[in-house]
Amino acid sequence: MSGSISGVTTPVSYTPDEGLTFDQAQRELKLFQYIDGSIHWWIGDLLLFSELRYGEQFSQLLDSTGLAPKTLTRARYVASKFEPERRRSAPLSFSHHRLLADLGSEDQDRWLDRCEAEDLSVHELSRLRAAGKVQHKDRPVPDELWDCVRNLPKQFVELWADGNASGTWGESYVLDDGRHVNLELKVRVTPSPLTPS
Fold it and tell me: Is 131 exposed, middle or buried (0-12, 13-18, 19+ CB in 10 A)?
């Protein structure tokens, strides 16, 4: 869809031309709906393109937008996980895709099909996900989490080997896509029933 807005726009208002007809008002409304449903995809695709094209200048582009870093990171991440030909438009939204972005492509497509077939809202999809019905079986464990398990601090290993104590060890990570992950390992050592007293 293409078109231009007839009237004056500001970041917080729209003043239509005085001579705007009913048919023009309908076209304007459709254009606004189109922009609203597309803007996050456009931002994400522009960020992916700019990252490849402009290299080091990419961070300057991010700083110049005035948008929250989380908004930009999310748009870029979701756009990177759904090729344009796999994206669904109305009634599904960018937010539907965002909730499924960390799944494998087959699971994403299966869930998008279900959302369309059952007319699931973003809230309903979120509730299903929270209930554990959206599995992450295709998502590999990030290397940085495996590295932290392989490289447990010496005092933690000693505590475990001692056999007389308990302990907790934890680390926080920020993954490449901006998500925060907290890893906490707890060890509680109890005497084995097979160990002689």
Answer: exposed
Determine the Cα–Cα distance for residues 70 and 75; give it in Å rounded to an integer: 8
- Phi, then psi, of 78 in degrees rounded to 5: -65, -45
Cα separation, 8 vs 17, in Å, equals 8
- Quick check: is 23 in a domain? yes
Do residues 55 and 68 share a domain? yes
Q: Could you list the residue range(s) of the whole structural domain that residue 174 is in? A: 143-188
pTM of the model: 0.61
Could you read off the pLDDT of 21-64 as tens digits, one per residue? 999 999 999 888 888 889 999 999 999 999 889 887 877 887 78
Tell me the per-residue pLDDT of 107-164, one tens digit each, with 9 for 90 and over: 999 999 999 999 999 999 988 877 764 444 444 445 555 455 555 555 444 444 444 4
In angstroms, rounded to a whole number, what is the distance separating the alpha carbons of residues 125 and 115?
8
Q: Which of 81, 102, 118 is where one domain is finished?
A: 81
Assigned domain for 193 exists: no
